[in-house]
């Protein structure tokens, strides 16, 4: 029986910055949140530097790289400005996401098929600098095939529809994610999942053996208001580990 690696947790600290920016000051500090998340069991820190700087600021990225002892997953749009910032700070990983100025949050996956000619030189430049590149895409085998053609070693599947649905519709979306994760492994892509995951819906995703990392932010920062960030991260870590252990046991039975 094949043994799969421990499921990693990336904690997105964007919305600590959202709260800070309401008053345009320095508190609460997202970099402090990143350190706390790492101490509580996060395997990495995710931060999305948007074109309009609505939450994370340029200096946050610098400070995370300098002050946090955990890998940085730098989410960014495929723009020249963001490529230059990534090359300046050299995060462990870059996740290229679609970005629209009017959206409240990332609304769907990147179209790696239609965007091939634009994305290819960006991915090459980042990869040549030693940065692992991930593409945030829908759970669609064609998008995963396009990621491989572009030379990206990682794909992160958008779980927003799964998180928003209920009942049979959610089960169908979960099946789509399971199939996409299996396809990713078959074609040599490392598979991550993110967007909309909570205590209530994380277990079925965490149980997918071919998924290697979950990126979770908004829910954990919201939950931290009630229970504290340390507690929120530890509980999510526990739920993920329990689901993964259960799936490993089921496969060995």
For the record, the count of structural domains works out to 1
Task: Identify the strand order in the major beta sheet.
Answer: 1-2-3-4-5-6-7-8
Structural class: alpha/beta
Percent of sequence in beta strands: 15-25%
List keywords for this structure.
TIM Barrel; alpha/beta; globular; 253 residues; 8-stranded parallel barrel; single chain; 11 helices
What's the quick description here?
The protein is an alpha/beta fold. The protein is built from eleven helices and eight strands. The chain is 50% helix and 16% strand.
Notes on the protein architecture:
It is a single chain. By secondary structure, this protein is α/β, with parallel strands linked by helices. It has a single domain (8-252), classed as Aldolase class I (TIM Barrel). It has helices at residues 14-22, 30-40, 58-67, 80-89, 116-128, 141-150, 160-164, 167-186, 202-206, 218-227, 229-252; strands spanning 8-12, 44-48, 72-76, 93-96, 132-137, 154-158, 190-194, 211-216. The model has no long low-confidence stretch (mean pLDDT 94).
